[in-house]
Amino acid sequence: MNFFSKIIKKRSSDDDYFISLDIGSEDVKALVLNMDKKQKKVFVVGVGEEQQNIGNMKGNSIKNISGVISASKKAIDMANRMAKNCPKKVIIGVNGEFIQGMSVEVCHKRDNPNIKIDANEIKNIIHKVQEKALNKIRKKIAETNTDNSIQLTSAVIVNISIDGYRVTSPLGFKGIEIKFRIFYSFLYDYRLKIIKDIVKKLDLELLDMVSEPYAVAMSIGTKDSTEFNSILVDIGSGTTNVAIVREGNIESVKTFNVGSQVFTKSIADKLDISISEAEDLKIKYSNKQIDDEMSEKIKNISSNDCDVLFTGIELSLSEFSNSNLLPSKLLLYGGGSQLLHIDEIISKLFLEKNLSFPSETKVKFINVKDIINVIDKTGKLHGFRYINLISLANFVLGLEIEDNLSNKILRNLIKEKYNK
């Protein structure tokens, strides 16, 4: 334990404080948060960030555990110093394919439809539904991967209906068929062991792990909104995630290995400069801090990479659309979305393609102020790079103030059986 940690150790026992940790391919970001359950708000009181060393990550997969632990510790210590607090609980987000998400629909038929559903029956139903859902996930994974040894880390019931009528909870209702739509976050066994090893060596307690696109989807509108429809595109350093939200329900998340690092490498290659120089030039270009001639060069160099990025988005969307119309609103976030004109380029490419949109696609950015229930007291959170982190914070708040019996039973089941 370092000197600073010893000084503020007494305050670390406060259960209202926790850490949100985002392990990315280029850096590790950490927030210290103070949760006020009465106000139903979370306050950002500390921010920390540390660059990853080369070799720590490949895409968004952890390759050098000790290197990631070192970067995480530095980011957390920085956030702790700002917050003057050392929380012990942490929620972790690892983007890309490391932690995956899938929406599953499961039906359950009751033996006695004329009897009102009580708490004991709900518990029994959730247990049966859980097994069916897990089998569906494993079957889906087996279509593309021989290894389906997964662990569920988190689950949220996003929709319940009884005999076709949507309800917030089945408690007290009668009916024969109960249909659940549940969004699961899961990862392979060996990946869970890596995360647990990191958490243990950081001397922290793992609150939860969740698919970051799900946390974002649930944080940019009211929880029970059935009118929220959007395409979410998170452009990270090494990967891009695409998710569809229809009527407030998120579908499976698609990931492909193209991110902002591709743009940096192209600039380095074309201008014959180092990667660090290219990254600096890319940032200055995005902030309009270079002359018009160089800006035009960067724009031309980046155009081919934008085409590659868009092709990945297009292929992901083609898997979602099938016979259904896609939402007409596309929301961009993540560090890679800061590239100048990327929204205009994607909008233009959408016009040239024949995807199943009901109308002209509107491309917009998600900003920090768009995330509900989270208030930044540090003044440090600008742009799109912290969207995942503060969305994770809102997700934790949702867990703490949850009053839905079905969700409580489901989450307890997962913690007891799969997240030991």
The rounded distance between the terminal residues' Cα atoms is 26 Å
Task: Estimate the mean pLDDT confidence.
Answer: 86
Number of domains: 3
- Radius of gyration over all CA atoms, rounded: 22 Å
CATH homolog superfamily of the largest domain? ATPase, nucleotide binding domain
Element-level helix/strand string: HEEEEEHEEHEEEHEHEEEEHHHEHEEHH
Per CATH, the architecture of the largest domain is: 2-Layer Sandwich
Record field, number of beta strands: 18
The total of helices stands at 11
CATH topology of the largest domain: Nucleotidyltransferase, domain 5
Low-confidence stretches: 6-13
The CATH class of the largest domain is: Alpha Beta
Strand content: 25-35%
Major sheet summary line: 6 strands, mixed
Tell me the strand order in the biggest sheet. 11-6-1-2-3-18
What's the shape?
globular
Estimate the helix proportion, in percent: 25-40%
Query: Helices and strands: which structural class?
Result: alpha/beta
